[in-house]
Design brief:
Elements: E1 2-11, E2 14-24, E3 29-33, H1 40-48, E4 55-59, E5 66-69, H2 81-85, H3 90-108, H4 115-133, H5 139-149, H6 166-180, E6 184-188, H7 196-207, E7 212-216, H8 220-226, E8 229-234, E9 237-241, H9 245-280, H10 287-299, E10 326-337, E11 340-351, E12 355-359, H11 366-373, E13 380-385, E14 391-394, H12 398-401, H13 408-413, H14 424-430, H15 447-456, E15 465-469, H16 477-489, E16 493-497, H17 501-504, E17 510-515, E18 518-523, H18 526-559, H19 564-602, H20 611-648
């Protein structure tokens, strides 16, 4: 569908990537991977036509519709949310007008058998089919579903876009792109401004979308749940794997080990051959063998080992001074912005050494609570900090707060005090700013570089309470893993405002959910919380079904016993449900057997590079998961029918 051919990008003698080529096929789900600065965003800009390469071409079919969401963009704030999103239906609006004009013309004509009249009807049918394909008269419902899925309330629809923060305006732009239904999505960090609920909604949308998806994301869970192919940019080259991110990491490691083994073996063979040539070069009796070995070396296809970019952060937080047992305590705390109440008489207690997550939809008060703890906002109610609490704070917009006129070195040197001033260069070096990079102006730094620089400030003095508001938004995978380990090792208290499930997993031991102006405490990790939320929703649903069932049974009881025909129909439904359960159980057994067989094949060393096995394994796992859902629904239906029969007997 889209062909990238021999693409090279040269920035003043530095080649970002050189002669890279790959194809984007219809229905591909590609994760574009690489460290910050590797060229991922540049590649998306080139594919979308927003930037020209130094050399090479991008070819695609005429009329192919591309939906591109950049990481940063400028906004025009002259419309309401709905008016802005309706721009996605510009083609549909045009079709609607054309259809209305043709219908009017058809109604006025009477030459029903003429060629021009028949051509007009054909045109009407063609436009109507296209109109229905794009959502037709249902486009208002599509707008509402999409906006709600991305976290907007109905009350937001009529508000001017200028009333929203940059993150929310990015959601509006994402909604427009989703509603345009392009042939290919090019999404650059789409989850940066989304909360967990919205991310999960977007996952479900993209997984079932009929077009192709190419996305840049440092959210491992998001990548794993959507992508089936990984294209890594590293040191100017690309590595293409038909696997999700986690599987790609495993395959890349295996490939490098195989290359190293083959390289070592080949190197030994070359050395032995060269020794033979050197030893017998001047012996006439060995002249034929020597010439043969020389030709072998000339024809030998030299094995190369993939180069990996191993530069990474080196974070270690200073030891935390001891604080009191209770670090943060809020009693009946409330916060309102004018008439807008955000927090309503909430209670919260965080103790020394705890690592907790603040989660919830954007606008529910997570950042507000963090700023109240920092004494940046006035509030009602009581908030108490424990004895000897010293706070290190990373704000959500910390990277944007940096003074762009300063250099990297000046940014830290101006705020460092005491002995740490003699170690500024070492500190910057630990955050991948070395040599001439410390003299770069902040204005030319990428989002990831700014985030790293802002994070250096946290290490300037020892603290015992770290409050990090969305610290991973611009960090690459490796940097996030290193930050996560540093936070694990930190012996103080940590409050994390984050939507990154993989980052929070195995890091936090308590989750505070912000919802409907209240805060609810959940003991356990992030995935336990998410599973519980699904279970709570299911329990609510089951409770609703049970209520309706009881009401229905009461009505039937008041009418008397079921008739013979009605009982006969109920028994037929039970038998049908039993057959569905049996068939589903048979399918599950077959899929489990298939997965076990594939698992045994994958474990064999000779199959390590056979990506089709991994693909089949993943597809089988997906099929098993879907079949389990079918079985659960069939089992619930059967149990419901049997309960009805029991209640009537």
């Amino acid at each position: 569908m889209v062909s990238i051919n021999q693409l090279t990008v040269d920035f003043g003698g530095f080649k970002l990537f050189e002669e890279i080529s790959f194809l984007i096929n219809n229905k591909d789900r590609i994760g574009l991977i690489g460290k910050n600065g590797a060229g991922k965003s540049t590649l998306l800009k080139i594919i979308s036509g927003h930037q020209e390469p130094t050399s090479g071409t991008v070819t695609m079919p005429r009329g192919l519709k591309v939906g591109y969401l950049p990481q940063h963009m400028k906004y025009a704030d002259t419309r309401t949310v709905v008016e802005e999103v309706e721009l996605a239906f510009a083609e549909l609006k045009g079709l609607e007008k054309n259809i209305a004009d043709i219908n009017m013309e058809v109604a006025e004509r009477s030459d029903y058998e003429s060629e021009s009249y028949m051509a007009l009807l054909d045109k009407l049918n063609e436009l109507t089919e296209r109109f229905n394909l794009l959502g037709g008269s249902n486009h208002e419902a599509l707008i509402e579903t999409t906006l709600k899925g991305l976290g907007f309330e109905r009350s937001d629809f009529g508000r001017n876009t200028g009333e929203f923060s940059g993150g929310w305006r990015m959601r509006i732009e994402l909604a427009k792109i989703l509603l345009e239904q392009p042939d290919i999505f090019l999404l650059d960090e789409p989850t940066n401004h989304l909360d967990i609920d919205s991310i999960q909604w977007l996952e479900d949308f993209l997984k079932t979308y009929s077009g192709a998806v190419v996305l840049i994301s440092h959210d491992k869970a998001f990548l794993d749940n959507i992508t089936k192919r990984s294209v890594e940019i590293s040191l100017g080259r690309i590595y293409d794997y038909k696997a999700s991110y986690s599987k790609f990491i495993e395959l890349r490691k295996e490939r490098r080990e195989q290359q190293l083994n083959a390289f070592v073996n080949q190197k030994k063979k070359i050395e032995d051959t060269e020794k033979f040539i050197e030893r017998f070069r001047y012996k006439s009796t060995k002249a034929v063998q020597v010439q043969s070995r020389i030709k072998q070396l000339e024809k030998l296809d030299r094995i190369e080992v993939d180069e990996f970019d191993n530069s990474s952060l080196n974070i270690k937080f200073p030891p935390a001074p001891r604080s009191g047992t209770v670090v943060v305590k809020a009693d009946e705390l409330s916060k309102a912005y004018g008439d807008l109440l955000v927090l309503d008489e909430v209670d919260i207690t965080i103790e020394r050494g705890e690592k907790v997550a603040f989660v919830g939809r954007n606008g529910e008060g997570k950042t507000t609570m963090a700023r109240i703890i920092m004494s940046e906002l006035a509030h009602q109610g009581k908030l108490t900090l424990g004895h000897n609490v010293k706070i290190g704070y990373f704000a959500q917009d910390q990277a944007e707060r940096l003074d762009e006129s300063h250099t990297v070195f000046e940014t830290i040197d101006l705020v460092a005090v005491g002995d740490i001033r003699t170690k500024v260069r070492d500190l910057l070096g630990a955050f991948m700013f070395s040599g001439e990079e410390v003299d770069k102006k902040v204005s030319v730094l990428s989002g990831g570089e700014r985030t790293r620089l802002a994070m250096v400030k946290l290490l300037l003095e020892p603290v015992n309470l770290l409050i990090l508001d969305e610290p991973t938004n611009h960090l690459d995978m490796r940097s996030k893993d290193i930050l996560k380990q540093a936070l694990r090792d930190f012996d103080g208290t940590v409050i994390l405002v984050s939507h990154d499930r993989e980052f929070l997993d195995d890091l936090v031991d308590k989750v505070y959910e912000f919802r409907h102006k209240k805060i609810k405490e959940h003991i356990g990790g992030i995935y336990e919380f998410l599973d519980k939320k699904k279970m709570e929703s299911l329990n609510d649903l089951n409770a609703s079904i049970a209520t309706k069932k009881n009401e229905s049974l009461k009505k039937e009881t008041s009418k008397g016993k079921l008739s013979f025909e009605e009982r006969k129909e109920l028994n037929k439904k039970i038998k049908k449900a039993e057959r569905l359960v049996e068939q589903s159980e048979l399918n599950i057994a077959q899929l489990e057997e298939k997965i076990e067989d594939l698992n045994q094949k994958i474990s064999l060393p000779e199959n390590a590079s056979d990506t089709s096995l991994f693909t089949n394994y993943k597809e089988a796992e997906t099929s098993l998961e879907a079949e389990m859902t079918i079985w659960e629904e069939a089992q619930e239906t059967l149990e419901s029918l049997l309960q009805q029969k029991e209640d009537l007997d």
